[in-house]
Each structure stands twice: as structure tokens, then as C-alpha cells.
């Protein structure tokens, strides 16, 4: 059983064998049974972060807000003035409201933290002598794992092998210059600089390695630090800032109005001071948009959840908002716009071409080259090409004989493994014969990779990559079974063949090799990848994703531009771009080299037109993104590799690929696509737009009821108290922080409304409280609500004899009349929640009952109203009573004309939708 705790010193200074022994493991790892036993002991390999704000603090915050304090004070004054029941009721309302806000905030927190679990990190680890892909949380000490550029290191580990390994340890040290790491021990300066140790939480910038884990989870250095430091403060999104400002402004206005009303009540109506204060308090509470912030946070969080369902994991709430503002998407081609299911369709040799026929992954002999079985011994060029394809390859395909199985690596390389297998070459077997000595890893700037392998005493370098990048390094060509100097005509023939396939949207990888006689340890990449012998090309097909066609159309109507930025060749990129409808015939294709020669001004002019960037390196992406940003665009940019990280960080929305992306890219990104699919970016943008417009709907709705709540008081003052207050303070509180809450919340989860992708992106400078919201709330819905409720108040009084009998601010008639005001506001709010659900479309188009949360909210508000009418103690406190059937008829019919009139107005103003 495992019970070792290895310290840094022995891990770094003992021999590897001593450490391996000590950890009771081997250089090929442990068995899965042993691993399970160890996991039992060590616990999952996870960092348990200290929770930020305590729940208690979060709860208390809601009871010391401005409005809460006003209500506490109001309660005290009511009690002091002898209105004990009122005072207690005000407090009760305050507590319910605070609790509700707390619940909202917690739901939001839960929603976002649940997302973190949706995207596990993986390690490539040896178990039972086989390399498998495993969730990093299941890693245990003694596990031997592989690393390559872009991976994050999942445990504190000692290197067993390492080639040109560079590790970014900035998460531990703050130092951004990558550290060189190697198998032999060099102490280095400062903490974490032992050359042969790598640490959890760091990332691999370049190179490859195998390492043995000796500490996992909270035992790691990173875990220790995480335990010490509190979670960093949650950031406030610009939207939340704007709302905070808005809330403060509205609160100030509310208080000013309250003071004014107080003075008027005392001086003009000669109301008692305490009563005037309570009256003013009602006004203030009516106008403070108390539910705004927590509701917005919750809407953002719900937006994040909906995006997750559509395969886009957003890392912070901030991005939800930015997504809705996106004007340009810079997108990769491979895997994002296309399926990333590469199949080798053709093989180009200097003197002939093969078509690879037959589908799937079938054993030797069943699949044909040019329709016939090939004897590789009679085809030395093909043999060599497939050998390079199989050996200069970091991908493993776990398969059976019938179908292509799981891929551990990249689809491009998997396609090569598969085509070799079709001809009867097993990459696994071959790589046992040809031991790999060294690797010059693939890099999207170099666009090629090489390995040096040895069979018997013969060492060879195998290179594969883009045609230009490979053939440029070649001095010779393999022609039949002879090697001869390469001619210009060979290059032209190869290029022509590449172009022919590229025009059909196919990409090709060139292969070359040579014998290596130099001393490998000191062999630099440039010298190694030189004087090569050109062999040929493998042509691959990667069909477009069928769903992107529609998504691209959606972007067009939403006025979002798509700029393809790809490492592939110009012709391939153009062909795919035209097929899927991103660009037309007039498109300009700019290659990386051309881009380098362009000035910023020229680039600005170029990106205004239809454009594709091809043959670019990730560094170019950064320039493209930042140029677009200086032009005022809000840019989303995709990426997957280590070198994409700067562009991902620079972009307003950095989008990393969840399946094929490196851990480094995922770290740098704001959003991760769990399916690598372009469509998911568009869905996320749609949801982002919806969240913003939902928050506006919510704002519209709560402002609307403010008018209905305030008008009765205005009437009271204007009539110098002659018309008794049609809506009492307790009744105002009932609406404002009672019946309005749930339907308002329901607006936060409206689905993206039809047409939301038919308009231009929102300008980031636009205000939430737009003119449209303002006039609809105060000038239109609010006025209707006020009119029907005050009308109801007078009507009830009329039924009881008014104007013959003077209105009395007491007694059963007053209770009945104010109940009517209250009920009419609630029923007019039912209409207004329906009208708020869409800015331009009719609610019938959305489906009247399609938002279940709103349905539920309406049900609850009617229940509250019924309780106020029929539960005697509540009747006392809220000054309410039952209504006659005529009144009910009025209430029930009320929402219908309001909704119909508004739908008519929308129809006239915006046309049929
Ligand atoms: P994209 O930008 O479309 O995602 P990639 O970055 O995958 O394109 O590839 C860019 C170019 O790099 C390819 O056209 C190809 O020439 C080369 N390339 C891609 N993958 C490999 C690989 N595994 N080994 C060598 N060269 C590669
Ligand atoms: Mg790529």
C-alpha cells in the first residue's frame, strides 16, 4: 500500500530510480487497481479553494442596504407613533425582501460554480502499461504521465524524459519568462527552479516530457498556496456597475421625491408628522429599484447556464454582456468551421498520384489505393511516405479492426495513422522498431514537425508539414527508389498538385526525411530540418460542419462579420470560405507573409472588405484582433494552441476549443466551446443579446409599477388631502416587494425573442435605461396602470354613492376602494409583464403561456391578493377587504384590452413579426 510523502529535496536530487522505487512504481506507471487504492488514500487530485464571501455576510448585506435601512427606520417611527402593527409589518416585509435577494444571489453563485465541473482537465497517463487519457482529478502519486506543449501540469512531478521542455510557472512565481526544464538536476535560483521538477498549476509552453507524479491535490505546492490565499474578490461587470449607478441615482431621486412629499403632506394636507413620514417612506420604497441588482446577477447567471446548454462555457458573468455586443468573429477554420474529421483521400508522389478508396478503418488489404491492393515493397515512395506519416506522429488511435476508435491527439495525425494502417502499416509496431530519439514539436508558426528515430544503428529524421514549409527544406527528392537532387520543376509539379486539391477545399501535408549522421544531442532544429529528401504529400478532406451554413446566415442578418483566420493554404481557405458562405467571389485572401508587409493603415482598409487570412501564424491573429479593436469593433476570436493565448487574451471574447484546445488556450479564454463548433459561438452571442434585453424588460416592468404606485399619492397631494390616499403604504410595499417580484424574475429567463438576431449588435455605449424603456414605462404602460387603478378606486366609491357621500379615509368603503386600487395595479401588471416580454413582437407570437416562470409568478401574485382579501389578520394589517363580483369582473377582463392595444401599437410601429 502506498504511504510515501516525498519531499522536494529527495525528489530532485535522488536518482530517478530511487524515486521510482520509493514511490513503488515503474517508468511505465502503475496498475489501475493500485491507482484506485492510492486514490482512496490521497483523495482526488483537486484544489479545494477557500470560499470567498461567507454566506452569513452575503445574507447580512441585504439587510443593511439603503432601502433596508429606510424600512427599519420607518418601522421604528411607526411603532413610536403608536402604529405598532404597521411597524412590525414593515419589518416583516423588509426581512422577506432581504431573504429573497439572498436566495437570488445564492442561486446565481450555484449556477456559475456548477459550470466549473463541466470542463474537466485530462492527463495522458500510463496505467497497466498503456497510455490512456484520464481525468486529472484521478491522478495519484506514482502515476507516470506524458506532457506536450499546451498541457497544464496536474501534479508535482519529477521528469523522466524531456525534450526542449519549457514550462510557464507564472501561476506560482509570477515570473512570465518560461523556465527550461530537463531530466538532469540543476538547482537553479529561487523557489521552484529545480530543473528536473515540474509543478501542478503550471503549463507547458513548448517541448514534450514524461514525468512521475509524487504529490497531488492539496499536497502540491500550488495546493499549499491556494490554501493560504483567500479567493480573489469577484469582479464587478460593467453592467453591474451601470446598474449600481442606476440604483443609486434612482434612490437619490426617490429620496428627493420622498422629502418633497413629506413637506407637502405636512404643510398642505396638514397630515400628522409621523403619518407623513410613513407616507413619504412609501413613496421612497416605491421608487427604489430594490430587486434590480440581485435579479440582474441572477439573469446573467441564468444566461451562462443557457449558454452552457448550447455548448458554450462562459468563464465569467462579464462575458455574457460583451457577447451581445460582438461585431466581428475571427474564426479558425479547422475543427471550428469544419468537422475536424480528417480523411486522407489522395497521395501525391513526384511521379504519380494515388486515390485512397474504401471507407473507415479496415484491416490490411481490404482498402485499396487507386482501386487496387498495393504491394508496398513494389512502391518504395509510398512505403516511405506512410512510414513518415506513422512515425512523425504524436497521435494514437485506439482501434479495433473494423472502425476508427478513440483518438489521443489530433485528427490530422489520426488520419495519417489510419491511412498507414489501410496499407498494412501499424504505427504502434513501427514505433517499437524505430525508437524515437528526439522531437521538434509541431508549431503553428513553423507549420511543420520532425522526429528523429533510430532503427538498428541507422538514425533518420522525419519531417511533415505544409508543402512550402517542408519542400523549402529539401535538397533532394525520392524518385522511384533513387534519391536525386530536387529541381525547380519538381517544386512546380508538387505545388500544382497541391493547388489542384486546395481548390476543392482539401489540405495537404508534405513529407520528407534524411539520414542523420550528426550528434543528436547538440543538433539544432534548423540544422536538423535541412537538406531533406522530399517524398510526397498526403491530401486530406475535412468537410464543413453542416450546421455552420445556417449559423453564418444568422451572423449576416445580425450584422456580425466573420473573418476566417487559418494556418491552412490560401486556396483551401478560400474554397471552404466560399462553400460555407462566409465570403463571395470578390474575397481578398491575405497570407501571413503579405500581412507582414502591410502597414496598419493598409490592414485597416483591408479588413473593411471581405477578407480571409491564410497561412498565418498565431502571432498574426493578435495583430488582426487588435487592429479590429482600434477600429471600434468588439471582437470574438477563437484559438486552440499555446501561441493563440495572447490573441485570446486580447480579444473581447477569447474563445477556446474545449475538445482540441490546449489547457493554455482554455486558461487564456473567456469562453470555452465544449463541442469546438462555430455554431456555439453564434448561439452564445444570441443568448448574450437576450440576457441584456431581458434585463431591460425587467427594468421596464418594475418602473411601470412605480407609476401606478406613485400616482395615488400625487392625487392625494394635489387634492390637498380631499381624496384620501387611494393606496396605503402597506399596499405599496405589497406590490413593490411582493407581487411584482416573481413575474419580474420570470422576465429574466425569457428565451431569445424572434428577430433578436435580425438587428445590428448593440453599441457598448448604449444605456440600459434607453429612451424606449423610459417612455414605455413612464409614458405608456405606467399611465395605463395608473389610470385603470385610480379609475377602479373612484368606481368603487361611486358604487357607494360618491359624489353624494364624501370619501372617507376610514371604514369599509375606504378599505374596499383601496383594495380595488391594489388589485387593479396587480392585474394591470399582469398585462404589463406580458407586454414587456418582447420589445417589438406580439406576445401571441411568443406564446402567452410559454414562460413558465412568469405563469408561476402570476399565479403567486393572485394568491397573495386572495390572501390579503380573505385572511383576516392580513386584512387588518394591509387595510384590505373582499371585493364584489362586479369588481372581479373588471379585474379579470382588465388585462385583455391592455395587451391587445399594446400589440396593435407594436404592429403599427414595427410591422408584423
Ligand atoms: P488551422 O489554422 O486551420 O487550424 P492548423 O493550425 O491546424 O490550421 O494547421 C496549419 C498548417 O500547419 C496546416 O495547413 C499544415 O500544413 C500544418 N500542420 C497542421 N498540423 C500539423 C501536424 N500535426 N504536423 C505537421 N504539420 C501540421
Ligand atoms: Mg489550428
UniProtKB/TrEMBL annotation:
GO terms for cellular component: plasma membrane. InterPro entries: ATPase_P-typ_cation-transptr_C (IPR006068), ATPase_P-typ_cation-transptr_N (IPR004014), ATPase_P-typ_cyto_dom_N (IPR023299), ATPase_P-typ_P_site (IPR018303), ATPase_P-typ_TM_dom_sf (IPR023298), ATPase_P-typ_transduc_dom_A_sf (IPR008250), ATPase_P-type_domA (IPR059000), Cation_transp_ATPase_P-type (IPR050510). Pfam families: Cation_ATPase (PF13246), Cation_ATPase_C (PF00689), Cation_ATPase_N (PF00690), E1-E2_ATPase (PF00122), Hydrolase_3 (PF08282). Its main location: membrane. The chain crosses the membrane at residues 63-80, 86-103, 250-271, 277-301, 773-796, 808-833, 854-873, 885-904. Keywords: ATP-binding, Cell membrane, Magnesium, Membrane, Nucleotide-binding, Phosphoprotein, Translocase, Transmembrane, Transmembrane helix. It is found in: Cell membrane. GO terms for molecular function: ATP binding; ATP hydrolysis activity. It is a multi-pass membrane protein. Residues 10-83 form the Cation-transporting P-type ATPase N-terminal domain. Gene3D superfamilies: Calcium-transporting ATPase, cytoplasmic domain N (3.40.1110.10), Calcium-transporting ATPase, cytoplasmic transduction domain A (2.70.150.10), Calcium-transporting ATPase, transmembrane domain (1.20.1110.10), HAD superfamily/HAD-like (3.40.50.1000). Signal peptide: none annotated. It comes from the Bacteria. Belongs to the cation transport ATPase (P-type) (TC 3.A.3) family. Type IIA subfamily. NCBIfam families: ATPase_P-type. This is Cation-transporting P-type ATPase.
